[in-house]
Amino acid sequence: VTVHQGPGLTNAVTGIAEAAKSGTPLLVVAGETAAAAVRSNFRIDQAAIAAAVGAVPERVHSPQTALDDVARACRTAVAERRTVLLG
């Protein structure tokens, strides 16, 4: 599943929570707002939202690690039957 940062993610939280609670292996990809955009309405703590509903927060750390980061998130979703929010 892919969602837009901010309101796209918050609109999907009910489904993400249900997937997490039922042990559904799911990868949710959500864009993130730049850290410098402190006044943006789209800036929310995505990792905290994921953890609050039982999903595993993961992140793409850099272009150089993107493939490994996505692979790690997919492995967690499939092998551990978890819902993963990848920012």
In words, what does this structure look like?
This protein has a single domain, classed as Rossmann fold, CATH 3.40.50.970. Strand 3 (56-58), helix 3 and strand 4 (83-86) form a beta-alpha-beta unit. Helix content is 41%, strand content 16%. A 4-stranded parallel beta sheet has the order 1-2-4-3, with helices on both faces. The protein has 87 residues and is α/β, with parallel strands linked by helices. The radius of gyration is 12 Å and the shape is flat. The longest helix has 15 residues, at 7-21.
List low-pLDDT spans.
none
Strand neighbour order, sheet with most strands: 1-2-4-3
CATH superfamily: Thiamin diphosphate (ThDP)-binding fold, Pyr/PP domains
Q: What would you call the shape?
A: flat
Roughly what percent helix?
A: 40-55%
What would CATH call the architecture? 3-Layer(aba) Sandwich
| CA-based gyration radius | 12 Å
Number of strands: 4
Q: List the domain count as a whole number.
A: 1
- Mean pLDDT level: 93
What's the end-to-end separation, in Å? 12 Å
The name of the CATH topology is: Rossmann fold
Give the H and E element order.
EHEHEHE
What percentage of amino acids are in beta strands?
15-25%
Largest sheet: 4 strands, parallel
Q: Count the helices. How many? A: 3
Please identify the top-level CATH class.
Answer: Alpha Beta
Structural class designation:
alpha/beta
